[in-house]
Amino acid sequence: MTTEAAITGGAIAIMLYACPAMGQDRTPLVEPDTAFRDLSEGLPGPVSPSSGTSTVSPSSVPQAMERMNDTDTRADLSLGAIYAQGDFGTGSKSTIWSTAIGARVRAGDLTLSASLPWMRIESRSTIFTGIDATPVLVDTDTSPDRRTAQGLGDLTVGASYTFASSASPVEVELSGRAKINTATQSSGLSSGKNDYAVGVDWSVPLGRITPFASFTYRFLGDTEAYTLRNGSAMSGGASYAVSSDTFVLASYHYARSATALVDDAHELFAGASTRIARSPLRLTGFATAGLSRGAADLSAGLAVSMGLFNRDAR
Questions:
Q1: How far apart are CA 79 and CA 220, in angstroms?
Q2: Burial letters for 15-24: b for 16+ Cβ neighbours within 10 Å, e otherwise?
Q3: Which residues pair with 84 in a beta bridge?
Q4: Minimal CA–CA distance to 112: which of 163, 52, 177, 59?
Q5: Which residues contact 130 (CB under 8 A, 6 or more apart)?
Q6: Strand 135-139 with 75-86, pairing
Q7: pTM, whole model, 2 decimals?
Q8: pLDDT tens-digit readout, 104-138
């Protein structure tokens, strides 16, 4: 076991230990202890929009903005798009366009999810599609000319389990994701290997504000040309409930680079989401700003999601 893997396991163990009485009977998320959540009308706010992967995606953001619980939406569909650009420390600009459809189903505390992107990448660098359609920068300036890779990207499937106790405002979600190599070789989008991630999300609904943090460890499949590095990804921030249907969110994201040839990624995120009146639809807009050469200089996106089997329509 490597030192980094040991640190990862220790961090997850500490966060789980910090959530008391996780195995005890719990109250539904929409009926929390009013001593903790009276100002938020019993509605926990959004959590990390990156799902602990390298950056945000058109499927991870709308899913973060729509918290599913036992008495509200039991399933949803989302369609989102994001445009990103940056030079990644080179003299040539890379552009990444991604559109993804996402789906989730929740049964009790277990949530299953899936997403499939269509992507277009124009760059002189080597960039693959990663978990949840996030770009994985591998190497810079590997071609004298800008190349275009486009088509359906790799499928991502995931599962998560939520722990919440009536004795504490802390909520913990354990998750696992797998990026399955479904993109065609001719598209130039995929590494040709599967990637995996395990993580934990931690949040504390406090009135209208919900601080959160996430920690994920990624396992990246090696290619014939590159040995990709496994590594951690983290995020932290807070969301604010403007009303029961409208939220704003700001966060910071970090991810270890996939190879030693590029820098680690650091970026800031801001987003807003609101439910469209008298409909099952939610509209979400968001943007990021890169803080390092390992992240896109900027990105912006828009997503719409639709709740299914909504037992508590508002």
A1: 26
A2: beeebeebee
A3: 96, 299
A4: 177
A5: 53, 54, 136, 179, 195, 220
A6: unpaired
A7: 0.79
A8: 998 888 999 999 999 999 999 888 888 988 888 89
d(CA 281, CA 304): 7
For the segment 230-244, what is each residue's pLDDT rounded down to a tens digit?
999 999 999 999 998
How far does Cα 30 stand from its chain's mean position?
A: 23
**Single-letter residue type at 211:** P
Express each pLDDT in 52-82 by its tens digit: 566 788 888 888 887 766 555 588 999 999 9
Report the pLDDT value the prediction gives residue 7, as an integer from 0 to 100: 40
